[in-house]
User: Fold this.
Amino acid sequence: MRQFFLFVSIIFVGLLFLSRLFYLQIYTSNEHDLFDDNAIRKVYDYPKRGFIYDRNSKLLVANQPSYDVMVIPREVEPLDTLEFCSLLKINKEQFIKIYNRARRYSPRLPSVFLSHLSKGDYAALQEKMRKFKGFYIQKRSLRHYQTTIGANVLGDIGEVSTSDLRRDLYYRMGDLKGKQGVEASYEKILRGVKGIKFIQKDRFNRNIGPYKEGKFDTIPEQGKDITITIDAKLQEYGELLMQNKRGGVIAIEPSSGEILAMVAAPTYDPNILVGRERSKNFTKLFNDSIAKPLFNRSLQGVYEPGSPFKLMNALVGLQEGVITPNETVTCYAGYKYGNRFMKCHCYIGRRNNLISGIQESCNAYFATTYRKILDKEGSASTGIDTWSKHVKSFGLGNFLNNDLYVGQKGRIPDRAYYKHIYPKTFYSTYTISNAIGQGEVATTPIQLANMIAAIANRGYYYTPHIIKSIEDKTLPEQFTKAKYTTIDKTHFEPVIEGMFQVYKKGTAASLQVKDIDICGKTGTVENFAIVDSLKTQLTDHSIFVAFAPKNNPKIAIAVFVENGYWGSRFAGKIASLMIEKHIKGKITRKDLEEWILRHSLEDEYAKPYSGEPFRINGQTRSQLVDDSEYRRLKRLIKTSQNPIN
Amino acid sequence: MVRDTNRHFKFDWITIILFLLLVGFGWLNILSASHTGADIDYFTFSQPYGKQSIFILLTFCIIIVILGIEAKFYERFSSIIYILSMLSLIGLFIFGKNVNGATSWYAIGSMTLQPSEFAKAATALAVAKQISDLNTNINSIKDQIQTFIIIIVPALLVLLQNDTGSTIVYGAFFFVLYREGLPKYYLTIGISVIILSVLALKFGTLITSIIASVLILGYYFLNRNKKKVTLLQSLFVLLLSIGVSFGVKFFYQNVIPPHQQDRISLWLRLEKDPMKLQQMKKTFAYNLNESEKAIRSGGFTGRGFMEGTRTTGKFVPEQHTDYIFSTVGEEWGFLGCSFVVILFVLLLLRILHLAELQKSQFSRVYGYGVASIIFIHFLINIGMVMGLIPTIGIPLPLFSYGGSGLWAFTILIFIFIKLDSNRINEW
Assistant:
C-alpha cells in the first residue's frame, strides 16, 4: 500500500491535468474572443456615408477625402525636422509640442499628428513620406457640403464621445457619428455598417495574412443615400430673409406633412464644422449663449403662440356648439371680467361675428368664446379638460414623434396642470389669457405650422417629417397615415374664411400677393426676460401663420420673429414672401423683400445687454442694415435665383 | 574488456531518453517564447534561448562527471554535500543578489547561480543517508525529529530569502518518509488539515465546524459498538478540527502578506467585488489570465511552432521561465500539452519503478526523493499555469529557462541513474 501512494498520486495528477487541458483547449476553446485577442489586428473597413439630397434631387451633402498624418513615437527615427515641418506648414516648436503629446499618450499606439491636410499638402508630403519613419498618412472620409445653408437641418458629424461608446458597442474610438440634424436622426441609415478584417500579426508585428483565411471577416455595407423633404431653394430664401433676425420658420406641405423649409436664425455655414477648424468653430458656436446659433428655434423654441391660437378657440367653440359663425359679440375696446380688463384694438361698440373676430383679432370675441367653452357644463374644471383634449388633437402640447433630432413638448394646460395653482376654486376667468394664446399655452413653431396644416386640410394632418425617401425603403406608416383632429370638417370653413379675410381686409391686408388666395393670422406676443435680475418686458414677438392657396393648399407656414413687434411687421412679410416663392417660384412683392432685407433687429437684441434703460415696441425706431450688408444680401438673393444653381 | 563495453548499457536508457526529450522540447519552447530578432543565433549570450543552449551543452559535461564518479561517493559524502549546500544558502544572506524580491542568487560576473536549486538534491541525499542508517527507526519520535530537522533547515533558509515556492517543494519529502514507514496518522492529519483549511477559507469557520461535527460524531456513532473510538477521543478530534479551522482563518487574515492573501482569494473565488476582480486581473492575476488565454487559444493541434500569436506578442510575462507551459499550450495545443504531461508521468513512474528495484535502502530512498521533488514541481507549476492552484513561482523541471534549475535537476536525476547502474554490482 505504501509503495503505491506516490504512484497513485502521480497517475491522478496526470489524469487531472489531461482533463483540465481537455476542458481548456477542446471544450471551451471556441470561447476565444477575436476582439479580445491582442495578437489579432482588427482593421475596419469604413463604408461610404450616404449622400443627402433635397426634394428636387439637388445634392446637399457628399463626402470628401481627408488626410491625417499619424505618428507612432516608438518607431520614429531621427529625421530632417526642418523639411518635415515645412511640408506640414508648422514650426519646430509646434512639432516638438505635438510629438511630446503623442509620446505621453502612448509610445506604441498611433496618434494623430496633424489632421486634415489639404490636397496640395498631401500630394507634396506623399512623395517624401518614406523618409520619415514612424509617420504615416491615414485617409479618412469627411462630409462635403454642397451648400452653405441648412446647418440646422443637415447637422454635422463628429467623433464619438465616450458615452456614445458605452451606449452603442458598434462604435470604436475615433469613429465618426452624426451629432445633430438629419445626420443624427438618420445616422444608422447614412453610416451603413463597417466591415472588419481580422489580420494575423507575426512576432514582428507585421501582417502575415488574413486570420483563418478571412472566415470571420465581414464586408462593409454601404451607407444609403437619403432624400429629404426640404426644398433647398425655399430654405435658402427663408434663411436670407431671416438674416439679422432671430426666430424660426417652418413650412409644411399639408397634403403630406413634408417639411419644405425649416429655418432657424441665427444659423451658420455647415462647412465650418468640417475639418481642422471644427472644434474651434464648434466651441465658438457652443459658447455663444446670447444668439445661441446651435439652438434650433424652429423646433426647440417654445413661445406663447399669441393670436394664431384664437383659431383653435374658434374651432373648439364651434365643435362644442357654444358659438355659431353668425352670433356676434360686442367689443368695448376690450373685455371686462370681474374687476379686470383685457384691452383690444377694436373701437368701442364694434359687433364681431366669428369671421370679423378673426379678421380683426378681437380679444373680446375670443375671451367670450373661451369662457363659453369652459363654462359649458357649469364647471370650468371639466370644461378645461374638454378644451385641452381638442387642442391636443392638433399635435400641440406634446412631442410630434417625428424624425427630427430635437423637439419640445410645448404646453397645453388642463385641470391637473392648474391643480397646484388653484387647488380649490377654479373659474374660467382664471385662465382667460389662454383665449388669446398667452399665459400658460406654449408652442413651438413646428407645432404651430402643423396646426395650420391641419386647418388647411380641414381636420387632419400628417406628422411633419423630413425624410422623403431612403433608396429602396418605404416610409413608415407613422408619416403616411393621416391623423384626425377631434373637430368636424364643417367647422373649418368659417374659420378659414376668417383667415382669408385677414388678408382681404384685416390685419394682413397690406401683405396680399396677386393671384394667390392666402389664409393667415397675425400674432403679437408680449414677452419678458430677466434683465439684471428684474423681470423686464421686451419688444413683442412678431408671429404669423398662414396657408395657401385657400383651396387645395400647397403650403402651411409658421413664422416667429423674436422681438419683431407686431405680427404683420416682420413675420407676416416673411410668410407672404415664402408662400409666393413656393407657389410662383419668383417674387413679385419686391417691396416686401426690400423691406425685410433692409431691416435688422440686432439693435433690439442688444438692448437687454446694454446695461442701460431701454424702451420697447413703438417707442423705438427700427434699425436699418448698412449698405454693404444690404448689397451682400441682394447679391445672395440674386445668385439663389440663378437657374443654374 | 567485456565489462567495459557493457558499461554504457548499465545506465537506464529509458530515463535518459525521457530526460533528453524534455530538455529538447523545453528548449524549442524557450526559443519560441524568448526570441525577438529576425535572425536566430543559437549560442548568443544576449538572448535566453541562446543562453539555454549553452547551459544544455554544459549539462552534458555535468552528466559525464556525475556518471564518472564512483557510486559509493554519493552515499559516503552525502553529509558533507549537505553541509556545504546549507552553508551556500546561509552565505546568501551576506553575498546574495536580490532579484524580484528574493535574495536567492550569487552573481558571478554576468552569471547568476541559485544555490536553493542544488540544495534540493543535497537534502535528498542527506535524507536518504539518514533513513538508510541502520540505527534509524522511522517510527521513533527521536529519529523522526532528526529527519525533520534535515528537511526543515533548507526549507526555512529559502523561506527567509523570500522564496516561498522553493519552501513548499520540501514538502515533497513527506512522500519519501511515508514510503519508508512514517506512521499513518501523519497522512491522515496532513490531508485533514488541507481539507479543513480549504473549507474554512471557502465557506467560513461556522460551516466547516458543522461539517466536521457531523462527520466525526457520525463516525463515532456508527463505530461505537466496535469499541474502536471513544466519545472522548472523538470530541478531542472535533475540538482540534474546529481549532484548526479558526487558526487557518486567523492565519489567512492576519499573518500572511496581502499579496498572498489575494492569490488565495482569487483561487478559491472568494473575491466577489467585480471592481476588485478587475483590478486583480490587471495586476498579479494578469499572468494567470494571459497564460490561460494562451493555452485556450491553442485548441487541439495548436497554432504551430513559433506561430503562437500570444507567445510571439510577449503577452505572457515570464513566459520562458515559470509560464513556459503556456507556450506549449498555444503552439502545440492539446496534443503537445498531453505529450509533455505524459512524458513527465512516464519519467516519474520510471524513477519510482527503478527506486523500488533498488537493493540498497539509500538508493531507494534517494530515488523516491528524486521522484517526489520532480512531482511537486510538476504538480505546482502546471497546476498554476492552468489555474488549478494558486500562483506559486517555481519552474517546470528540465523545461523552464534557467541554468541553475536545469543543472540541479540534471544532478538530481543522474546521481540516481548512477546509483541505479551500480545496483548490478551489488549482487
Observations:
- Confidence is low (pLDDT under 50) at residues 1-6 of chain B.
- DSSP finds 19 helices and three strands in chain B.
- The two ends of chain B are 20 Å apart (CA to CA).
- The longest helix of chain B spans residues 324-357.
